[in-house]
Amino acid sequence: MRSQDLKRAKRDVRKAVLARRDAMPQAERDSASDAIARRFLALRELDGARIAMLFWSFGSEVSTVPLLEGLRAMGIRTALPRIVDGALEVRAYETGDPVTATPFGAMEPAGGEILRPEDVDVIVTPAVAFDRRGARVGYGGGYYDAFFPRTRGGARRIGVAFALQVVQGELPAGHADVRVDAIVTERETIECRDGGA
Length: 197
Known about the structure:
The chain has about 200 residues and is an alpha/beta fold. It is about 25% helix and about 25% strand. Helix 2 (about 25-40) runs parallel beside helix 3.
């Protein structure tokens, strides 16, 4: 697929899925976010994990607040990404630490210890849409696709999304797009290493 065609296909997916996600009633979104957190916090991938990097949810995304609180309660150190010179930097973060707004609406740590990408054990990964093979369409910045290769091989990339964000069939993907290992929704946990079956 040509670059322009790929961008157009991703833009179409992004528009359609965001419209569905934005249309979810807030009560349904809150209930589904809590269910996703419970399912996520029971994952065996968290056994022995020392550091988990989350993202600051905004808009109609799955709320990451219960994930952050649950991981801290399990004794897992939490971190958030900060965009520095066009790349993700891992910053230690605890609830209440100072944050600053990004141009696209999320918040990022204002300070916090800088952690090495290779020390992160679990990367809670955002996206607008996923397919069952672990392909994802994000917001178009490419930050996570560039970040994943900087992490160690055993780090688990786990997407969190509402069930309506998991599309049937295959998402448009280019050679630089990196898949996640699993996706947690309010209904199921999808293991993607074997094609999401």
